[in-house]
Amino acid sequence: MIDLRSDTVTRPAEGMRRAMIEAPVGDDVFGEDPTVKRLEEYVADLLGKEAALYAPSGTMTNQIGVHVNTNRGEEVLLHEGSHIFVYEAGAPAMLSSVQIRTLPGENGVLDPGTVRAAVRPVDVHFPRSRLVCLENTHNTAGGKVFPLEDFAAVAATAKELGLKVHLDGARLFNAQAATGIPAREWCAHADTVSVCSSKGLGAPVGSLLAGDEETIGEARRARKAFGGGMRQAGVIAAASLYAFENHIDRLTEDHERARNLAAGLRGAGYEAQEPETNLVLVAVERPAEFLDALAREGVLATPGKPGFIRLCTHLDAGDEDIEAAVDAAARIIAGSIER
Ligand code: TLP
Questions:
Q1: Is residue 337 predicted with pLDDT exceeding 50?
Q2: Predicted structure pTM score
Q3: 75 CA distance to ligand 1 centroid (A)?
Q4: CA 84 to ligand 1 centroid distance, Å
Q5: CA distances from 17 to 199, 208, 242, 318, 321 (A)
């Protein structure tokens, strides 16, 4: 089976497993795990922030980000296709008692005018607008990079209006790899940033939330409350550290394979969006049926935005897998198999 459902499906590489075996560990809830501390310092430095906190998942680091930047009953502005809104099981309401306000935007980009218009006047009738969440790269837009200038502009508007900014950077290093712009340049415009080691970077588990010392202190408390305090977590943190140290620069390979995949699919007669990073959106008439047919041909993918399927390139998908995926899709379009 060729698994292009997500970059989360990768298995730990040999060197990563060795790092896990050899990691010095301690009880991280007591703040005594040297590997977790090293990872948190490494990532804080990479993102240009004072501190970082290690947590099990990107959902948790996003939700801690929402929690530490808001109070009950306040309003969070975000893109209508954002992961926090679409794929996190209603957690902002469940865990932080905040109200979500979704906004439109081309390619997952929120523009300053849209945010400005959405901010509520100060009046007892209205919720307080408190936080803007931005996503880079943008998942449902098909791995689009949030251009740095646009990001800086919307963040400046948010700041001017007294709002905090959280960046869902689950695939922020894909944006870095695609543009050559260091990840920290986007982070400079955000109060809190979530990054994942378990997507394109290939770790089995683990995300980090970065921000200033005080905010990350609060985040540590929220992590405990959300059930994310872990004990000898160095065993898994070592994999994340290995991922950040060794797998960032190679993301360009995934992007090249995504371009080859899109080109191959177009050659076979499909409408495939030109990828900027490692996600390829392909328009198909009946996505669920198409995915079944593709699976019968040995290729796994997921639904994308409505009317599209998503294929994702990653560390464990080589050139031959991409060619085989194109061949499988070509067989379907040629009607040579039963659908
Ligand atoms: N996204 C997953 C699915 O949940 C859709 C995927 O396969 O793409 N932010 C963004 C932008 C994400 O794409 C994801 C994972 C997360 C946060 C959540 O990360 P985890 O899965 O670690 O909770």
A1: no
A2: 0.97
A3: 22
A4: 9
A5: 17, 20, 9, 21, 24
